Input
Amino acid sequence: LLLGLSCLLIGCGAGTIPTLSLEEQNAGWKMLFDGKTFNGWRGFKMASAPTAWKITKNGELHFSKKGAGGDLMTVEQFGDFELQLEWKISKGGNSGIFFWVSEDKNYAWETGPEMQVLDNAKHKDGLERKTSAGSNYALHAPAQEVTRPAGEYNRVRLIAKGTHIEHWLNGVKIVEYEIGSPEWEAFVAASKFREMPQYGRNRTGHIVLQDHGDKVWYRNVRIRGL
Output
């Protein structure tokens, strides 16, 4: 369960729509997804949400592959934050969670770092640790493997404060790095991101859920400023 998250049951065990307690609201938490509408979301470089993204009866954001594709992005921009959510990937599937994204470039990954969402068992990126689920994509590998299989939900905490970034998956801190550190600069210089001068340089920006052409589900999406 996400820390202290309250839920309102809907249907007969069909799923949950998340709500926040007064205590959680006072602590600065807010829901980014209300479980019912695309309020607060639109497509990257779009005025509205791409039609391939659906909202399920269980209160999930679901990339269905049916309709016009595209990354799903928060309308609001964030600076220092803690993001919590859960994701479930289809067999062989790939997606990602980007942050501090700007729309100056053609793709979210040209500016925003990515926490990888992946079926490690069936997708080729799972063969390389630094592109496996939970990684800082192509740069920092998870310290350990704690990913649940395709079809099961994984719990995320993504913390971004100043230049300090932490990836937590299923209650375990698996990635920690400092943007702009000698190690980070060396990793970027040895990667495809060396051709992208704005990559990782923003300190505010949008949060983006990636359309990588595979079915994926997100739920219980919430954030607080740090």
In short: Residues 1-14 have pLDDT under 50 and may be disordered. Residues 78 and 204 are 5 Å apart (CA to CA).
